[in-house]
What does this fold into?
Amino acid sequence: MTTPIIAGIPLSKDWWIGRILTQYYAEYTWVSLGFDDGTIIVASVEEVCVGKWFEVFPLKIDIVMPDHLSGHTFKWTPLPAPLTVCRARSLWRAEWLEPAQDIGQFLGSGPHSVQHVSRLQRVPLGANAFEVEAGIELQGIDGRCFVICSSDNSPFKIDLATETGEIEQILQFHTVQ
It folds into this structure.
């Protein structure tokens, strides 16, 4: 059974259409996207506690520069060619906990569990799963894609992909909608 949808992307998919992405700047926990009209948005990961010792990390998009980045010097990476966005799709994944037997590998007292991720509709029966809007795929009119999402295995980390192999690796645990 999947329960509440956790989403952190306030922009409609239509907002992206026609925008021209020219550059990006990536850090471990956030990515800035620069557009040809001077617009800059910041994608980061937001921690959401959904149960005891159970956090999920949806993608969060800020259309206004967050205070902690004001005055930051951006070392922009230009795209090989501008990406004129013709389609924007959300990346969703299911996350759930399963009990884990403690044979000395865990710190602290139990009970212990292991967090799992998968595409939507691939959750084991009986699991208390959450659907997480983890990222976004921007497709250009030339077929190229630019993907950003929260990592499926490292809290607070942002994954970014522009090459087909990298994108396929990210999509193996996400449902594109």
Notes: Residues 164-171 form the longest helix (8 residues). Helices lie at 13-16, 164-171. Residues 2-176 form one domain.
